[in-house]
TrEMBL record, chain A:
It comes from Parvibacter caecicola. Residues 174-254 form the Electron transfer flavoprotein alpha subunit C-terminal domain. The keyword NAD does not apply. Heterodimer of an alpha and a beta subunit. Coiled coil: none annotated. InterPro entries: DHS-like_NAD/FAD-binding_dom, ETF_a/b_N, ETF_a/FixB, ETF_asu_C, Rossmann-like_a/b/a_fold. Belongs to the ETF alpha-subunit/FixB family. Residues 40-152 form the Electron transfer flavoprotein alpha/beta-subunit N-terminal domain. GO terms for molecular function: electron transfer activity; flavin adenine dinucleotide binding. This is Electron transfer flavoprotein alpha subunit.
UniProtKB/TrEMBL annotation, chain B:
Residues 21-213 form the Electron transfer flavoprotein alpha/beta-subunit N-terminal domain. This is Electron transfer flavoprotein small subunit. NCBIfam families: PRK03359.1. GO terms for molecular function: electron transfer activity. It comes from the Bacteria. Heterodimer of an alpha and a beta subunit. It holds the Pfam family ETF. InterPro entries: ETF_a/b_N, ETF_b, Rossmann-like_a/b/a_fold. The electron transfer flavoprotein serves as a specific electron acceptor for other dehydrogenases. It transfers the electrons to the main respiratory chain via ETF-ubiquinone oxidoreductase (ETF dehydrogenase).
Length: 295, 254
């Protein structure tokens, strides 16, 4: 079997190529720039002309797919690749299974309704496209040659003009590496109130993350700080949810925590069913008291 | 100008129950609009108002999605007309099937210049139907939009990616999917809901659109995960010593 790996970033390229190696005797890897060598049997580089969106490489990737004719395509779940590779699959009438959480020879698992359930599904097309996030193949090792080829760019019929592009500042904290994680939720009434959460984090040695609404409806946190199905999937030692209701979409991101805590003013909040220790109380009332006792 | 917004109607996840055998029970779940499609509707309504465009909503799914409350919900948000296709062949439809049928609907509606989709559906969250619809139409597509603007001939989409921010301009007709932060859904007033009841709803059949494509994915089973066992020791701050007990538990893991 032959697998094509499409990834933008190095860590994903390594992990997907390693995962692919377990199923395929031939692994071909395609990327836009700065190819990682030694992880596949062949590496293909697609150079998109300056001033174009990367999605403009669609026709080039379509040619790679036709030339290589893989049975499986693994891709990194970035926004761009979801668009580019999804379109490639549709063009070929092929199945796409995004953000798989597990895979075996027969089928893959994806989350359904934000993690309320796991859906086991099978591709019924000759080529199957799957995206897998970090950690799906974490124990596998990639191997391969240093063969790098630059693919001839096929200009698209329609121009996707990039009028502006800017690199975002790097993330300040890496929640994926933190032992203890505190998540602030909508129960925080203002940005100032978050100071108590920061004090609490210092006291217990935790990093502060949040639920999705706090990066979206409010911009109190950078978007790389939200935990859950569409954000960070973590496995910390300790999780503390403060002012978090406990919706599945958030909780799947921390349900592997060793010990879980919650503070919420509503005794019926669903999070109390998903933690080891809970405290029913309003943040502005209980958090300062907890901080005082911990200091 | 005509803008079409793609809206998925599905069971409200708040009312989904997990049965003893870990299968899901939808019997108490009412239909609702997929959460982030509400943001897409709002972005589309704002753009339509600005560009003096007509706004239509397009949805497809099994017969169960067709209820008057959900129809009114969509039509009370600045949408002029709703086009729907309900067919039980679309139960568990995959992105390929959905994209093909939505593209056929858009072609049948006619004169659509811009299609706007949400960030991802609440059940599958595959972030695929937008681009797959675009591919079926042969139109360009950009996803993750956080701001949109159009001059009638092109659409410019600002988007935030994992490590970059960029702005892309493409010719119309085109498909754009938008991130939730693009716009906050409006709260429809009584008047909007009443007016929504009088707006046109056009129903298509799968036959007149050339039928539903064969599935590309087969669902084997859908089961709730085995929950992580938790102690569930809950203290009430109003009780004497509760905060101390909670702090003691925290100290255990510090
Ligand atoms: C497709 C999809 C993907 C999603 N992905 C994610 C994701 O990855 N991550 C994520 O987080 N969300 C995600 N969401 C959103 C998710 O469904 C929930 O809306 C969100 O997690 C809720 O955040 P919350 O708990 O902070 O807010 P709410 O649900 O509003 O809960 C706030 C809680 O705070 C409590 N509270 C209020 N005031 C106080 C106070 N003074 N003191 C103490 N407690 C108080 C309330 O009792 C309530 O329980 C997704 C949704 C969809 C549809
Ligand atoms: N059945 C549907 N009817 C109308 N629009 C849909 C449907 N399914 C998905 N969409 C649109 O496509 C987007 C992406 O969906 P998905 O690929 O399922 O995550 C959604 O946010 C909707 O805007």
């Amino acid at each position: 079997m032959k697998t094509l790996v499409i990834a933008e970033n190095e860590a994903a390229a390594r992990e997907l190529a390693a995962g692919a190696r377990a199923y395929a005797d031939e692994v071909v890897y395609a990327t836009f720039a700065d190819p990682v060598t030694g992880i596949a049997d062949k590496c293909l580089v697609v150079e998109v002309p300056e001033g174009q969106a990367k999605e403009a490489a669609f026709d080039t990737f379509a040619k790679i797919l036709a030339d290589e004719d893989p049975q499986m395509v693994f891709f990194e779940p970035t926004r761009r690749l979801k668009a580019l590779v999804g379109r490639l699959a549709a063009h070929n009438g092929a199945s796409v299974m995004t953000d798989i959480s597990a895979i075996d020879e027969e089928s893959v698992q994806t989350r359904y309704f934000g993690g309320i359930a796991e859906r086991t599904a099978k591709s019924v097309t000759p080529v199957a496209f799957c995206s897998a996030g970090a950690g799906t193949f974490k124990d596998a090792e990639p191997s391969g040659t240093d063969v790098v080829e630059t693919v001839e760019y096929v200009a698209p019929a329609v121009t996707l003009e990039c009028v502006e592009r800017e690199t975002l500042p790097p993330a300040e904290v890496d929640l994926t590496a933190a032992d203890k994680v505190v998540a602030a939720g909508r129960g925080f009434g203002s940005e100032e109130e978050l100071e108590e959460a920061r004090t609490f984090c210092k006291a217990i040695g935790a990093e502060l993350g949040c639920t999705r609404p706090l990066t979206e409806t409010e911009d109190w946190f950078p978007r790389e700080a939200y935990i859950g199905i569409s954000g960070l999937m973590l496995s910390p030692e300790v999780y503390v949810g403060i002012g978090v209701s406990g919706q599945m979409q958030h909780m799947v991101g921390v349900d592997r925590a060793h010990v879980a805590f919650a503070i919420n003013k509503d005794a019926h909040a669903p999070i109390f069913d998903k933690v080891d220790y809970g405290l029913v109380g309003a943040i502005n009332n209980v958090l300062p008291k907890i901080n005082a006792k911990l200091s | 100008m005509k803008i079409a917004v793609l809206v998925k109607i599905l069971p409200d996840d708040q009312d989904i129950q997990v049965k003893g055998d870990r299968t899901l029970d939808f019997s108490r779940a009412k239909s609702t609009v997929s959460t982030y499609d509400l943001n897409a509707i709002e972005a589309a309504a704002q753009l339509a108002a600005k560009a003096d465009a007509q706004l239509v909503a397009v949805t497809c799914g099994p017969k169960s999605i067709n209820d008057s409350k959900t129809r009114k919900n969509i039509l009370s948000r600045g949408v002029d007309e709703l086009y729907m296709l309900t067919d039980d062949g679309l139960e568990l439809a995959d992105a390929y099937q959905t994209g093909r049928i939505l593209a056929a609907m858009i072609q049948k509606i006619g004169d659509v210049d811009l299609v706007i989709a949400g960030d991802g559906s609440a059940d599958l969250y595959a972030q695929q139907v937008d681009v797959q619809t675009a591919e079926a139409l042969g139109w360009p597509a950009i996803n993750g939009g956080t701001a949109l603007d159009t001059d009638g001939a092109t659409v410019t989409v600002a988007r935030i990616l994992e490590t970059e921010r960029e702005s892309i301009r493409m010719p119309l007709p085109a498909v754009v999917s938008v991130a939730p932060e693009v716009a906050l859904p409006r709260i429809a007033g009584m008047k909007d809901v009443l007016a929504a009841g009088k707006k046109p709803v056009v129903e298509f059949t799968a036959e007149e659109l050339g039928g539903i494509a064969a599935p590309t994915v087969e669902t084997v089973e859908i089961l709730a995960p085995v929950p992580t066992p938790r102690k569930k020791q809950i203290f009430d701050a109003a009780d004497e010593g509760a905060i101390d007990a909670f702090v003691a538990a925290l100290r255990e893991v510090m």
